[in-house]
Amino acid sequence: MTAFELRDLGVTLRNREVFRRVSLTISAGEMVGLIGPNGAGKTSLMRAALGLIPHSGQSSLANLTARDRARTVAWMPQAREIAWPVTVERLVALGRLPHLSPTGAIPERDQALIDQVIDRMDLGALRLRAASRLSGGEQARALIARAVVQDTPILMADEPTAGLDPAHQISTMKVFRDLADEGRAVLVSLHDLGLAARHCTRLILLAEGGVIADGPPAQVLSANLMARSFGISVWHENTVSGPVFQPLEVVG
Ligand SMILES: Nc1ncnc2c1ncn2[C@@H]1O[C@H](COP(=O)(O)OP(=O)(O)OP(=O)(O)O)[C@@H](O)[C@H]1O
Q: CATH number for the domain including 37?
């Protein structure tokens, strides 16, 4: 089942074309990693898909009202700013806002979901701490939890694992993968190609002003495409504990 579609999407910022003619269909159940070198346009692609920046072409999400969009897509931007001194528990609960009745009371069912996600994101010990005073990685986990609690059919996250320690990077990718396996569509931009290789069902490689590869991780992470897009040599092997991918050297 199609979760969202982009048709001939293009973004030009300050007279510079970032990418053009990107057409994609993302389906329910897919865990899609968006990869590409710095400045390739990963953030711009996600923001344009959400209708947050001017673009050419179409995105099936761009014309939703703000409320409908918040009920359809949980969006985790790269900038992680927690402006208010709310507790972690309250911050996560804010993810339910698009679903609340006008009285604003949190229903019991919602509280159970909030508790479950706090547990899943390993935030139990932090739940009564002021979110604005957590470390960068702890704040990232709280913001991911807020997005997960939104309980939407689509999840989009811009570099969600940046700044997390290895254990929390892995557990966060597993949470996203579980959400995809449960039938949601997940799109995450990633610089860690090892995590992308292990946890994504599909990779989209953005470079040279467009999508230059789209398919299963083993295909997109090929030596040729990695040399062409990132200028790196790589080591990639299927092991008993899953695919292992390691960038090796800068080439060319
Ligand atoms: N507000 C803006 N005005 C002008 N140019 C911009 C603006 N935002 C981004 N750009 C430019 O657009 C290009 C794509 O940026 P974008 O942040 O989408 O890339 P990215 O692939 O997400 O990069 P990174 O991996 O470094 O996060 C870059 O060259 C960037 O300098």
A: 3.40.50.300
